[in-house]
């Protein structure tokens, strides 16, 4: 989704105007003068709102937290165990979007477990999301199957993506597939960016594109991430952001390897203007201390400030 600078400026003004209300809702006092005078960056920054589930925030509190952090919206998990359950999408997703709108925020993307047109509630979920203004949905992921030839498995997945691409085109929404590093003993198809390119080749990225995650790319490819990114660039639809150390530990933005890579300069050279999904996968609360709204807000503000700096540097 391409967003004009004028639209971003209007949205930034609305977000800042709503921040005082949001902070009041959260019981956290007034907006700092720095937050009130910040200028809009080139892209909307939205938070992957799975993080709000740790504090069991309802939709209004989640929207208030997002606005108070100076973010532009959320990337909502609409999947089993997510903020919105797929079977309740028609009831709950409009409520979440309405809460966001009250704070001048948006939901440009969602995260799903959809992996085929026959996935439970798939078409109903996507039609509801598109009616509410959602432009992209993240697909579920698949692991390498033991004893199965990877090329054959990718071919089978591509066949399902063909059907999903047709449905996405008819609905007017775009599917995105994330590169994900191994999860324990499970190795995800597409975690290696060579696999992801093979999976996406031939698809219109408006229907099936890449959700490029620089953190997972660094985990899998190290310093070779850039060569793979250049090969994958024609498929780029959405950028995800989380930081990682050389020891493959998730950390707050600025504490890991991203800044050294020059990634955001590379991203800007592509002409990227779509939203960026900020993922908080690290320990955002000191060990032994309770997780609170105030602590999470502090972490989100720090990440947003760092990401904004990278986007305009």
**CATH domain topology:** TIM Barrel
Structural class: alpha/beta
Helix count from the secondary structure assignment: 12
Query: What is the string of helix and strand elements?
Result: HHEHEHEHEHEHEHHEEEHHEH
In short:
The protein has 313 residues and is α/β, with parallel strands linked by helices.
Structural commentary:
With 313 residues, the protein is an alpha/beta fold. It has one domain: TIM Barrel (Alpha-Beta Barrel), CATH 3.20.20. 44% of the residues lie in helices and 13% in strands. It contains twelve helices and ten strands. Strands 1-2-3-4-5-6-7-10 form an eight-stranded parallel barrel, surrounded by five helices. Strands 8-9 form a two-stranded antiparallel sheet. β8 and β9 form a beta hairpin. α3 (59-68) packs parallel to α4 (89-102), α4 (89-102) packs parallel to α5 (122-131) and α7 (193-200) runs parallel beside α9. The radius of gyration is 19 Å and the shape is globular. The two termini are 22 Å apart. The model is unreliable at 1-10, 12-25 and 27-39 (pLDDT under 50).
């Amino acid at each position: 989704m391409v967003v004009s600078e004028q639209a971003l400026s209007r949205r930034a003004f609305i977000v800042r105007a709503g921040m005082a209300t949001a902070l009041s809702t959260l019981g956290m006092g007034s907006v700092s003068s720095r937050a009130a005078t910040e200028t809009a960056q080139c892209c909307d920054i939205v938070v992957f709102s799975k993080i709000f589930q740790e504090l069991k925030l309802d939709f209004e509190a989640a929207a208030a937290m997002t606005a108070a952090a100076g973010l532009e919206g959320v990337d909502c998990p609409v999947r089993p165990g997510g903020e919105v359950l797929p079977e309740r999408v028609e009831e709950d997703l409009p409520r979440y979007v309405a809460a966001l709108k009250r704070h001048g925020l948006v939901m440009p993307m969602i995260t799903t477990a959809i992996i085929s047109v026959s996935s439970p509630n798939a078409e109903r979920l996507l039609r509801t999301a598109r009616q509410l203004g959602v432009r992209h949905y993240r697909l579920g992921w698949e692991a390498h199957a033991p004893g199965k030839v990877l090329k054959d498995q990718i071919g089978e997945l591509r066949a399902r993506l063909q059907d999903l691409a047709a449905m996405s085109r008819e609905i007017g929404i775009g599917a995105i597939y994330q590169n994900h590093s191994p999860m324990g003993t499970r190795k995800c198809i597409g975690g290696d960016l060579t696999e992801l390119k093979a999976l996406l080749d031939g698809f219109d990225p408006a229907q099936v594109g890449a959700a490029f995650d620089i953190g997972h790319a660094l985990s899998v490819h190290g310093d070779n991430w850039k060569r793979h990114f250049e090969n994958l660039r024609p498929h780029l639809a959405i950028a995800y952001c989380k930081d990682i150390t050389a020891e493959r530990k998730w950390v707050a933005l600025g504490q890991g390897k991203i800044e050294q890579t020059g990634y955001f300069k590379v991203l800007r050279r592509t002409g990227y203007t779509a939203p960026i999904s900020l993922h908080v996968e690290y320990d955002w609360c000191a060990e032994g201390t309770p997780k609170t709204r105030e602590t999470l807000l502090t972490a989100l503000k720090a990440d947003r400030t760092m990401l904004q700096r990278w986007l305009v540097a």
